[in-house]
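Why should sequence recovery work at all? Because a backbone constrains its sequence more than one might expect. Tight turns favour small or flexible residues, buried strands favour hydrophobic ones, and helices have their own preferences. The token representation captures these environments compactly. In the example below, the structure is given first.
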């Protein structure tokens, strides 16, 4: 290895974390290249949070049309038509626009974009096609990929990736899984008029979320028409003309027009040659790093979904900022994974930050629980049977708010502000002394006075 490499840093993967790392490092004067084999922006921009949120918006329009009558608008629902190909085409145009923005962000900071599949031939060399590139530092930011269980007929099962490009919408659909991706797509499909069944091997979906949130969301999803089947998995799928015959583990057979698996994701490290160089992978296949994103090979770091930390875009962005500072700044910077706010864009949506009640009790806290359920004001005139839940988990010893959880319209928007308060260590007394904005749903978080447990 010569003393002069082609680049100071090569980032493999142009997702959220990789692009942020590349840009910030280039702005600090580093010579940076990004290698990408698919699309700029990674999962989030192309087959993740951005197009999913657009589909959520689209799937909620029918509810808005139904609610309009209560506000004096005469909308002929019997003549309402939905054009799925138009939604997909408009979504595609928006994604292409975002791809262009990512390209310009990289190019404007002097980052070299290398299109192709990367392989590491040694600790300082990345091979793309017939060309080798050397760098002092190499960062793996290749993200994750959906996993489909190995069952007969696996080739008939779609993942979230393909759902964004369906040529047409089926009349019936089966969604297999119990995480947030499964719950979100079940809501999208049901909202667009598809008869949707959600299958989950456990006894209640959204494992890891607050118990009250899980139970409340279950009830609201049933109201939306989603059929929920627990304690069951798919054993096989057979294609029959334009439909599928799904054999379930409980002996039941379902006929459907689409089968989607949202049964987990794995680190996308295929073909990189990491283990040949001494980079360690965990039992789950994620790249093993220390608290500073360092692998077992000194010149190779990794960040984002590929290392198994919370698979959220803001987490990868923050990691990119920290790693850039450590590599090309003052060498300092730490990641703080506490009180990460998140949202699930099911219908109604979920917003959550901090500890669940179950986590807080397991940690030994003596708690006060505040909980409120109500019909949002918007639905009082429309008559829609949809309710909201708000919950605060409070440490009884020091009055600190340990967690805030919500199910209802705009839950993500509301939770983002609450996250600041919880990150700052706000107490319930400080919540109580904060004046509410009336009339809003959000004011409920500062008006809950009596604990329920």
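From this structural description, the recovered sequence reads:
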């Amino acid at each position: 290895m010569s003393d002069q490499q082609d680049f100071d840093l090569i980032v493999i993967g142009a997702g959220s974390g990789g692009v942020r790392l590349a840009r910030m490092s280039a702005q600090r004067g580093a010579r940076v290249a990004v290698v990408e084999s698919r699309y700029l922006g990674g999962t989030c921009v192309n087959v993740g949070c951005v197009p999913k949120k657009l589909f959520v918006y689209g799937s909620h329009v029918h509810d808005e049309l139904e609610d309009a009558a209560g506000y004096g608008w005469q909308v002929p629902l019997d003549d309402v038509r939905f054009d799925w190909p138009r939604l997909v085409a408009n979504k595609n145009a928006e994604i292409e626009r975002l791809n262009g923005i990512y390209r310009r962000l990289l190019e404007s900071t002097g980052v070299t974009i290398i299109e192709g599949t990367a392989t590491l031939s040694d600790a300082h060399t990345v091979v793309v096609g017939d060309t080798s590139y050397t760098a002092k530092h190499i960062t793996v930011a290749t993200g994750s990929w959906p996993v489909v269980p190995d069952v007969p007929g696996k080739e008939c099962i779609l993942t979230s990736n393909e759902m964004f490009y369906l040529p047409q919408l089926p009349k019936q659909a089966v969604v297999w899984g119990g995480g947030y991706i499964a719950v979100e797509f079940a809501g999208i499909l049901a909202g667009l008029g598809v008869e949707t069944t959600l299958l989950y091997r456990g006894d209640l979906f959204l494992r890891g979320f607050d118990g009250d949130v899980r139970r409340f969301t279950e009830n609201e999803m049933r109201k939306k028409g989603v059929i929920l089947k627990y304690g069951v998995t798919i054993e096989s799928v057979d294609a029959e003309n334009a439909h599928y015959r799904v054999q379930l583990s409980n002996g039941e057979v379902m006929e459907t027009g689409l089968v989607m698996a949202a049964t987990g994701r794995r680190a996308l490290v295929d073909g990189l040659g990491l283990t040949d160089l001494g980079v360690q992978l965990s039992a789950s296949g994620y790249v093993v790093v220390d608290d500073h994103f360092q692998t077992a090979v000194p010149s190779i770091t990794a960040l984002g979904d590929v290392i198994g930390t919370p698979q959220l875009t803001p987490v990868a962005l923050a990691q990119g900022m920290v790693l850039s500072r450590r590599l090309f700044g003052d060498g300092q910077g730490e990641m703080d994974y506490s009180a990460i706010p998140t949202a699930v864009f099911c219908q109604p949506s979920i917003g959550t930050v901090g500890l669940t009640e179950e986590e807080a009790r397991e940690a030994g806290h003596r708690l006060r629980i505040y909980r409120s359920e109500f019909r949002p004001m918007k639905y009082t005139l429309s008559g829609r049977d949809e309710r909201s839940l708000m919950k605060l988990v409070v440490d009884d010893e020091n009055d600190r708010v340990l967690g805030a959880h919500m199910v209802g319209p705009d839950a993500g928007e509301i939770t983002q502000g609450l996250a600041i308060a919880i990150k700052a260590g706000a107490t319930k007394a400080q919540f109580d002394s904060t004046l509410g904005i009336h009339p809003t749903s959000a004011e409920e978080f500062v008006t809950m006075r009596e604990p329920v447990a």
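A few observations help interpret the result. The chain has a mean pLDDT of 97.
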